[in-house]
Amino acid sequence: MKKPHPSRALSPQEQDALAAELDALRDSVVADLGERDARYIRRIVRISRYSAVFGRIALMFGFVPLLWPLAVLALGVSKILENMEIGHNVMHGQYDWMNDPRLNSQTYEWDNVGTSDNWRKTHNFKHHTYTNILGLDDDLGYDITRITGAQRWNPGYLLQPAYNVVFALLFQWGVALQDMKLGRYVLGRRPLTEMFAKLRPIVRKSGFQLFKDYLFFPLLAGPNLLAVLIGNLIANGMRNVWTYSIIHCGHFPAGVRIYTRAECKNESRGHWYARQMNGSANIEGSRLLYILSGHLSHQIEHHLFPDIPAHRYPEMAPKVREICERYGQHYATGPFIRQFGSVIGKFFLYAVPNLQRRPRTA
């Protein structure tokens, strides 16, 4: 028997009222954007850059006790900030109102093997438009993980608890290749010429990243080449695992709902808002966790207002939660360990053939 989702269905009139309240909340924050927000993002950019400069210079001294691990940590934190709080949020257009060419959503290129153009398509458009709609949102398991009984089972899923460890370590590569759907070319369903054309920008971008981190900077260190190479490898791994963990906590823990295409046909704005609420989950923690997560600790608020500067989400969260409660909508939130633990539990639960049929929660 499928478990009912804790949120109640909304009437068309309630959907319209919900949309009006959330639109008003968004408008009030937009009207308040200004120098405070500009100072915040510029400060984060400086911290990320200074951290990267320190990390790269300190790595040049080789395996010096205390200095080397501190350098790796600094470089890893820099990459996390650039990926999460800067790159992801800038590409959502959160700072376009500043008219700063360095923070322009359409031209920003991040420190990642995936291209920004590809991210804007797969994430900003596909994922945020079709959040948690089975068959339309490619982020549902990233085509390699079964996280709901509504997904067709195959024997490969038996290994998903193990191969997700590899996926976490190489997460930036999975994101870079996500839209390729390589299986179609392997099976001959699409021409290889098309595959090579789509791969070209990815190869160019990833080639630059590999050259920078694993050739240029290591060679610059001379005899300390190995210390720099290993340091860069660990820093990239830190960023990959952290990003993987935060994103999975935001969409796959207990209490998050999966939708069918039929449920979202001719969707109203109010229904879209409700789907964002029910298809996302928050992580409770410290301000440091919020910053390092790019404020995707507030994934619910991010999906409701993706173009609002993310550092505003903690201020908006109490109002969003109060609105959820009044409209009978579940507000999925919890500490990191609990949220990620429930994700891991799903890896094992759905690795085997259906133990529960087509649940409404995932």
Describe this structure as you would to a colleague.
The chain is mainly α and 362 residues long. The protein has one domain (12-349). Helix content is 59%, strand content 2%. The protein contains 14 helices and 2 strands, in the order H-H-H-H-H-H-H-H-H-H-E-H-H-H-E-H. Strands 1-2 form a two-stranded parallel ribbon. Helix 1 packs antiparallel against helix 13 (313-326). The longest helix is centred in the middle third of the chain and has 29 residues, at 192-220. This is Fatty acid desaturase. It holds the Pfam family FA_desaturase. One of its GO terms (molecular function) is oxidoreductase activity, acting on paired donors, with oxidation of a pair of donors resulting in the reduction of molecular oxygen to two molecules of water.
Q: Please give the largest β-sheet.
A: 2 strands, parallel
User: Mean pLDDT, rounded to whole units?
Assistant: 94
Percent of sequence in beta strands: under 5%
Spatial gap, N to C terminus: 14 Å
In sequence order, what are the helices and strands, one letter per element?
HHHHHHHHHHEHHHEH
Q: Write down the domain tally.
A: 1
What is the number of helices? Answer: 14
Q: Got a strand count?
A: 2
Which outline best applies? globular
Radius of gyration: 21 Å
Class by helix and strand content? mainly alpha
Task: Give me the side-by-side strand order of the main sheet.
Answer: 1-2
